[in-house]
Structures are given as C-alpha cells and as structure tokens.
Write a structure and sequence with these properties.
Layout (H helix, E strand, L loop, with lengths): L4 H19 L4 H18 L2 H9 L3 H8 L13 H10 L5 H4 L3 H18 L2 H10 L9
Helix pairs in contact: 1-2, 1-7, 2-4, 2-5, 3-8, 5-7
C-alpha cells in the first residue's frame, strides 16, 4: 500500500479550513488547538471502545493528534455543563485563556466542533458519541 503523505496533509488541512468556518475564525492554529481540546475532552469522557471508533473516522493526521496521550481508561465523570466546559478548557495545553477566556467561549467552541463533527463523521457515530455524553451536557441536534 502506497503512503501518500501529501494527500494526508491535504485532507487534514481541508478539515482545518472548514473548521475555521464553523468556528468563525481565521486563525488556523487557534482552530487546531480548539479542535484538539474538544476532541481530547470527548475522548476522555466516553468509553474507550467508543473513543477508538470515533478516532477511526478522523483523517490520519487528526487521528494522530486525537490519539496522542490516549490510554484505556474509565471515562472521566462529568455531570454538569460548567464542569464539562472547564474540562475542555483544561485540555488546551496552557492556551486556555487565549482560546477560551470564559466558559461562554468554551461553550460555543464545543457546539461548533460538535456541529462540524456531525457533518464530517457518520450519522451513527455522531449519535453514539452524543448519547455517551451525560444528559446535562447539551449536544447540538
């Protein structure tokens, strides 16, 4: 099987450009940090098997970012939306004040990323991920 790194980069950059549109920003690095933060929060919140299924639907470069630091684990217990938003902020590797200065910023970024995922992964996978999040954590329909 041929490894076409140029195609991997192209597909990942296409996702990043589209994500910027969903987030309403032009800064690709900020968009990438936001995407990584939300993906890592979701990954940690859902069952490992479900996390693996979600990761399988990402472009190869995003898959590597998604699985960076992944381990088999019990899902992080989060029951309230503010706790969820703080968890997302904690996944931003020290840039949380720049990317998520308030919980409202984290809320809108989370919803934008979920809308993006809804449009870029299978409907069944999106439904499984959204159902795995606690009912107190709102998920875009």
């Amino acid at each position: 099987m041929a490894m076409n790194f140029d195609n991997y980069v192209k597909e990942s950059k296409t996702w990043l450009h589209e994500l910027c549109t969903y987030l309403g920003i032009d800064d690709e690095m900020k968009a990438a940090r936001i995407f990584r933060s939300v993906l890592h929060a979701i990954r940690d919140r859902i069952q490992p098997g479900e996390a693996i299924h979600l990761g399988a639907q990402l472009p190869i470069i995003w898959k590597g970012i998604y699985f960076d630091g992944f381990s088999l684990h019990d899902p992080v217990r989060i029951r309230h939306e503010d706790e969820w938003l703080e968890y997302i902020r904690s996944k931003d590797s020290g840039a949380d004040q720049a990317d998520f200065p308030t919980l409202d910023h984290a809320y809108y970024a989370y919803h934008d990323v979920m809308s993006f995922l809804r449009d870029h992964i299978s409907e069944g996978q999106y439904r499984q991920v959204s159902q795995a999040l606690h009912s107190e954590i709102t998920v875009p329909a």
